[in-house]
Amino acid sequence: MSGDAPVFCRLDEIEDGTARGFGWDRGGERPVPILIFRQGDRVFGYRNACPHIGVPLEMDPDRFMNREGTHLQCSTHGALFRAEDGMCVEGPCVGRPLRPVPLQIGPSGEIQPA
Ligand code: FES
After folding, report:
1. Chain-centre distance of CA 89, in angstroms?
2. What is the CATH number of domain 9-113?
3. What Cα–Cα distance (Å) separates residue 62 from each residue in 14, 19, 28?
4. Which of 4, 59, 61, 97 gets the most CB atoms within 10 Å of its CB?
5. How far is 98 from 75, CA to CA, in rounded Å?
6. pLDDT the model gives residue 31
């Protein structure tokens, strides 16, 4: 683990089965929007950009899940994505995945880019 890498949050700061949004400061003009989904002790990171037209998935802060809590959902046209691999399984961009952001979890639960 790199001590210089940014820490997005700790594992216990994301409710299990949900996702939160973060800005990833990579030294560019603006932070890169990402989302992090938690499933138990695992996390899955993606660029927060819908493969349909590139907009962020959520309209309200940290509201990434569909009502049933089974999939990530784009709030613009309702595309559903598998949380475990980002693949769109329903909606206008079926078969096109969210772009993954590899993450790692440190000894104190800190979530960082891998
Ligand atoms: S912008 Fe996401 S489904 Fe259309």
Report:
1. 16
2. 2.102.10.10
3. 10, 6, 23
4. 97
5. 14
6. 96
DSSP state of 65: B
| Phi–psi pair at 65, nearest 5 degrees | -95, 155
Round to whole Å and give the CA distance between 110 and 51: 28
DSSP per position, 12-62 = GGS-TT-EEEEEE--SSSSPEEEEEEEETTEEEEEES--TTT---S-SSTT
Q: Give residue for tokens 């939160």.
A: 20
Q: Which of these, 83, 1, 2, lies nearest to 43 by C-alpha position?
A: 83
- What is the chain's pLDDT, residue by residue, as a tens digit (114 residues)? 456 789 999 999 999 999 999 999 999 999 999 999 999 999 999 999 999 999 999 999 999 999 999 999 999 999 999 999 999 999 999 999 999 999 999 999 999 999
Task: Report the nearest-CA residue for atom 3 of ligand 1.
Answer: 77
Ligand 1 atom nearest to 57, measured from its CA:
2
Residue whose CA is closest, atom 4 of ligand 1?
Answer: 77
